[in-house]
Design a protein that fits this description.
Elements: E1 2-7, E2 12-19, E3 23-31, H1 33-37, H2 44-65, E4 75-81, H3 85-101, E5 106-110, H4 111-122, E6 130-135, E7 140-147, E8 153-160, H5 166-176, H6 183-191, H7 215-227, H8 233-259, E9 263-267, H9 274-286, E10 290-292, H10 296-299, H11 304-317
Parallel strand pairs: 1-4, 4-5, 6-9, 9-10
Antiparallel strand pairs: 1-2, 2-3, 6-7, 7-8
The structure holds 5'-O-[(R)-(carboxyoxy)(hydroxy)phosphoryl]adenosine and zinc ion.
Length: about 325
């Protein structure tokens, strides 16, 4: 079963062809970062117009690279939420149109479920339960993926951010430090030149359950820089990154111990962060767990993860009716 999958929930226009939910025959991602950089963030209207222009060629390229024609496909899938409503509409409407005209089933996919399944594309033998730290520009969640009683997998939400998402904190602090957009990669790079112990920034909600808070940290960085304008930006970046990574890793580790997980996984754009990748691998090794750190391209938004999830959803739920709306606030089906 080959699925053509489309992902346009934010500022990446992506299409992929995935076979049997496991083998990525092609995955094409076109990032609009440069288009939005001068605005300091994603401009929703600009994003949807760019998706509209790029999507046809990107789908054609994904089909060509996989060497498939519509007759070789078993379904067409697209992200239907969460995300920017205009962006979601472009990808979902196109996927429905392809499905209808090629007489194939359509599968609507939750973007966050896609991030959860991304790990399995690179590590199909991961055994459940696993704890997944999902950290992106819009979300910060600690989730337990566990076997469902009726077969398949179910998701239990252990904790989430009560204010800013981790990626949002990186983006806001980077903007304040004048490092541009997107902030995460800029801070990651600058932090390599600085000392992570230069400033002891606060660890929000440390020691309390599995929820996260990053807005106090951001305020603390602003106050510190205003009070010490002479301080090296690299030290500030490294110390800020350390505060975020420390709290993420500490909670993921504690959660893994509590639920008896066999592996810790990371996903979402912030999972591309070098320090987070190293630290998760280290603590998992120390605790005798498998650390699953997907490649950077599988952590950030892509359509291969949507194709993998679509294959699973098609088996469990069957096709999605073409009348399904996109939902900018779509939630994961937690147990
Ligand atoms: O998952 P994603 O590509 O898009 C969604 O938000 O769904 O995540 C984007 C976020 C941005 O906030 C970006 O700054 C952050 O991921 N990010 C990083 C790194 N690369 C991307 N944060 C920290 N370190 C990085 N290397
Ligand atoms: Zn994402």
């Amino acid at each position: 079963m080959r699925i053509l999958a489309i992902e346009t929930s934010c500022d990446e226009t992506a299409a992929a062809v995935v076979e049997d939910g496991r083998h990525v025959l092609s995955s094409v991602v076109s990032s609009q970062t440069d288009l939005h950089a001068s605005f300091g963030g994603v401009v929703p209207e600009v994003a949807s117009r760019a998706h509209l222009e790029l999507l046809g060629p990107i789908v054609a390229e994904a089909m060509a690279r996989a060497a498939v024609s519509p007759g070789d496909l078993g379904a067409v899938a697209a992200t239907i939420g969460p995300g920017l409503v205009g962006s979601l509409l472009v990808g979902a409407s196109a996927a429905k149109a392809y499905a209808w005209s090629w007489e194939l089933p359509f599968v609507g996919v939750n973007h966050m479920e896609g991030h959860l399944h991304a790990a399995f594309l690179e590590e199909p033998e991961l055994s459940l339960p696993i704890v997944v730290l999902l950290v992106s520009g819009g979300h910060t969640m600690l989730i337990c993926m566990q076997p469902a009683r009726r077969g398949g997998v179910e998701y239990r939400l252990l904790g989430q951010t009560i204010d800013d998402a981790a990626g949002e904190a990186f983006d806001k602090v980077a903007r304040f430090l004048g490092l541009g957009y997107p902030g995460g990669p800029a801070i990651d790079k600058m932090a390599r030149e600085g000392s992570a112990t230069a400033v002891a920034f606060p660890r929000g909600l440390a020691g309390q359950g599995y929820d996260f808070s990053f807005s106090g940290l951001k305020t603390s960085v602003v106050r510190h820089v205003r009070a010490h304008p002479e301080m090296s930006l690299a030290d500030v970046a490294a110390s800020f990154q350390e505060a975020v990574v420390d709290v993420l890793v500490t909670k993921a580790r504690r959660a893994a111990a509590e639920v008896g997980a066999r592996a810790i996984c990371i996903g979402g754009g912030v999972a591309a962060n070098s320090s987070l990748r190293e630290r998760i691998a280290t603590v998992a090794r120390d605790d005798g767990l498998v650390a699953f750190v997907p490649s950077r391209s599988m952590c950030t938004d892509n359509a291969a993860m949507i194709g993998a999830t679509a294959c699973y959803r098609l088996k469990v739920d069957g096709p999605t009716p073409l009348g399904v709306p996109v939902d900018p606030n779509l939630r994961l089906p937690f147990v």
